[in-house]
Specification:
The chain has 17 helices and eight strands. It is α+β, with helices and mostly antiparallel strands. The model has no long low-confidence stretch (mean pLDDT about 85).
């Protein structure tokens, strides 16, 4: 490699990495916990459900109760399940009946408990698991700024990965086995950055690509919409199968009896190991009422097996069908593969734990990259003013990043002590607490102190999480294991293991003087 190319790759790698380092750390740290979003949500509510994406609901009973409250005639109704919990999401569109009251023409979104049919709004159902999941793509920043920012951060991260590989290509194997903890500080950070970067390289590449795709795909397809579809976005979404077929509203009440439960069961019985995760009802109670039943085959049977059956209610006739075993096209595979490899929902707890570990390793790679940047510029021939500025920048970086650990552990305790914790209160506890910790560590002006006490405080708070849960609910982790409440048991034990490891690391750390 020529010196010119080396310098281009080196500076591209360094600049792109430094610019995005803090936000990238936040994305990966929160994203690592997001692999356990469903477990965190159920732990917080002291509930545990089976590991299944299938909707477990008595549709006829639920719709009858909703009809008494909302008057469903003429509405489109979407019932879906996106996570492993007892609730399903319900979206009611406004009625198509032009003579209906203004209230009936309003749409509504809420969650419905599948057992007691209790309704709750998004704000009422907000949880720590949802918060961490949304934090990993910066959804707390007003839309669409947060989404686009996280997408472009993922894109820049992809540049950093590619240029990093090009830099180390010739020594990619030999450097992987090199680790010299007793050498000077820059060598220590460089070896750790290179070795751990290579271990997590496939993981980081996948998340850089899929993260950019999910967050900025609208910007990617915008030119195609303008040129190929002449600005008709609905036409594009229809071809991409993001929109359901639309059926005309006859404005005539359906008098013949029908059962949504029977149709869903009928659709499920078409294929073995088929799980229903979405039911769409169009023109509820109308003579042209249709029911669209969607689902997937178990990932253990077929990685991409998306199926659909459409029924016309007036005569219970099947008007359309998509076989998940034989009719999945290229587009289905692309969408499903990108989704599944990003969320890691196809390999059970083993894959989730591995993904969490690789996510934390990536956080360390980010921090070590920042430390390499600092140590490389801490030279006697550099002006004192620049050296001080670099130290301040890294001090702020470390304070923001490392304080995420104790504040996240504290948020778990608060979520259990004050359950149900409202969305605004959770924001206040997390963000204000995070800000105060950051300011404290910046004022302290000691990077070693920041590192050690973030680990110690986070570890202590982490060990208190299962204790808090046991005291508040009486459901100690050994009880939840005996009662087969695996999700609750997992979170308690997860924090015991994580906090024990970080506490050991904290007391094993020895300050190393830079040369």
């Amino acid at each position: 490699m020529s010196n010119r190319n080396y310098n281009i790759y080196f500076h591209t790698h360094t600049v792109s990495g430094i610019v995005i380092s803090v936000v990238l750390f936040v994305i990966f740290f929160a994203g690592s916990f997001s692999f356990f979003r469903d477990e965190i949500i159920n732990w917080e509510r002291n509930e545990s459900t089976s590991y299944s994406k299938e909707i477990d609901l008595n549709y006829d009973t639920a719709l009858k109760k909703l009809d008494n409250e909302y008057i469903l005639h003429g509405r489109n109704i979407t019932i879906s399940k996106h996570s492993n919990e007892k609730r399903v999401s319900i979206y009611l569109e406004g009625t198509k009946d032009t003579l209906a009251s203004a209230k009936q023409k309003e749409g509504s979104f809420f969650y419905l408990d599948t057992k007691n049919y209790k309704r709750s709004t998004y704000e009422e159902s907000y949880s720590l698991g949802e918060f961490l999941y949304r934090l990993h793509f910066l959804a707390q920043i007003p839309y669409p700024v947060g989404y686009y920012l996280s997408g472009f951060i993922a894109l820049f991260f992809l540049f950093a990965i590619v240029t990093g590989v090009l830099l180390h290509w010739k020594k990619i194997v030999s450097n992987f086995y090199v680790f010299r903890p007793k050498e000077k500080l820059k060598t220590l950070w460089t070896d750790a950055h290179t070795a751990l970067g290579m271990i997590g390289l496939p993981f980081q590449f996948v998340y850089a690509v899929t993260g950019a795709f999910f967050m900025i795909k609208l910007l990617i397809v915008a030119p195609a919409v303008m040129v190929l579809y002449k600005g008709d976005q609905d036409k594009l979404y229809k071809e991409l199968e993001y929109k359901d077929p639309e059926y005309k509203f006859d404005n005539k009440k359906l008098v013949s009896p029908y059962s949504i439960d029977q149709l869903v069961t009928k659709a499920k019985n078409n294929w073995k190991d088929f799980e229903i995760n979405r039911v769409m009802i169009q023109n509820y109670g109308d003579t042209n009422m249709h029911v669209i039943v969607e689902g997937e085959l178990l990932s253990t049977k077929k990685f991409t097996g998306i199926g659909k059956v459409v029924y016309r209610i007036s005569d219970s006739k099947e008007v359309a069908k998509k076989n998940p075993e034989t009719e999945n096209n290229y587009l289905d595979v692309v969408k499903n593969v990108l989704y599944r490899i990003h969320f890691g929902d196809y390999g059970g707890y083993a894959l989730k734990i591995i993904s969490f570990v690789l996510g934390i390793i990536t956080c360390f790679v980010i921090i070590s990259g920042v430390m390499i940047w600092l140590v490389a510029r801490n030279k006697k021939n550099m002006p004192e003013k620049k050296r001080r500025f670099n130290e301040v920048v890294v001090r702020i970086y470390l304070a923001i990043c490392l304080s995420m650990y104790p504040i996240t552990a504290l948020a778990f305790i608060a979520a259990k002590l004050f359950h149900p914790l409202t969305q605004s209160n959770l924001y206040s506890i997390y963000f204000i607490g995070w800000l105060l910790l950051t300011i404290f560590f910046i004022i302290k002006k000691n990077d070693a102190f920041t590192n050690k006490w973030c680990l110690i405080s986070g570890s202590i708070l982490g060990l208190l999480i299962p204790i808090t849960n046991g005291i508040i609910t009486g459901n100690w982790f050994w009880n939840s294991f005996i009662q087969n409440q695996i999700q609750i048991f997992f979170i308690d034990v997860f924090w015991i293991v994580l906090a024990s490891i970080t506490l050991y690391v904290a007391f094993s750390l020895k300050p190393k003087e830079s040369n």
